[in-house]
Design goal:
Elements (H helix, E strand, L loop, with lengths): L1 H4 L2 H21 L1 H4 L4 H18 L1 H5 L8 H26 L14 H32 L7 H24 L2 H6 L13 H28 L1
Length: about 220
């Protein structure tokens, strides 16, 4: 079992990160599923973010020491943007809560709704970029797989397939408009399984993870 063969501290982090993505994807796709679990999934996602920050608290302690290279500065800036995005995501969600803070009878507004949705969409590429820049640390702690040509070819084929599917999902879900033009409306054909909507959002995260990982590798070689 590859998962169990990793160090305990890494298994804990991967478990929290996995649950964080699951709750985020569900919250983003909740319209396709129906029900009233949207807000609770968002709260659970942000709870996972808080645990993730706590498990990696040594990173914040180290900010006052060491040399600030361009890569370190860029990585820290990415994390700062993620924290800002998550904080605003939480704030806008609470300001129009109908379930978690139902006792406050908050009305919200269309502006808050649009901002909340835009922040949720931005979380997808941001998580992917963060994961891609940190993937090297995760990969080197796990067991090494066989280096045969067939296995290498299979990995490359799967990788290319993920990139193609991710680009297709990114454009098909009209993410450029949602990220840069403030379009918060998201439609999904009710006759299609909601699972495919979740899969499209997961593929967007994977796309940015792959892009960030290889850009990071190219930067390290320079």
């Amino acid at each position: 079992m590859i998962w169990l063969s990793r160090p305990r501290w890494l298994t804990q982090r991967l478990t929290v990160d996995f649950l964080m993505v699951v709750f985020l994807i569900y919250a983003t796709s909740s319209r396709a599923y129906g029900g009233n679990f949207h807000e609770w999934a968002g709260v659970a996602c942000l709870a996972c973010v808080a645990i993730h920050v706590w498990l990696n608290r040594n990173f914040f302690r180290s900010l006052v020491s060491g040399t600030w290279s361009f890569r370190r500065s860029l990585n820290t800036a990415i994390i700062a943007v993620i924290i800002l995005n998550g904080s605003l995501f939480l704030l806008t969600g609470l300001m129009m809560s109908k379930e978690v803070l139902a006792f406050l009878s908050l009305k919200g507004s269309m502006t808050l709704r649009n901002a909340h949705a835009t922040l949720a969409y931005w979380a997808l590429p941001l998580i992917g970029i963060h994961l891609g820049t940190q993937w090297r640390r995760v990969a080197r702690t796990g067991p090494k797989g066989p280096g045969r040509t067939r296995v290498w070819f299979l990995k490359i084929t799967i990788l290319i397939g993920m990139v193609i599917f991710g680009i297709r999902s990114f454009l098909g879900r009209e993410m450029p408009q949602k990220l840069f033009l403030g379009r918060s409306f998201d439609y999904w054909d009710p006759d299609k399984p909601a699972f495919f909507l979740c899969l499209s959002y997961v593929s967007i995260i994977i796309l940015f993870t792959i892009l960030a990982y290889f850009l990071d590798r190219l930067w390290r070689k320079q």
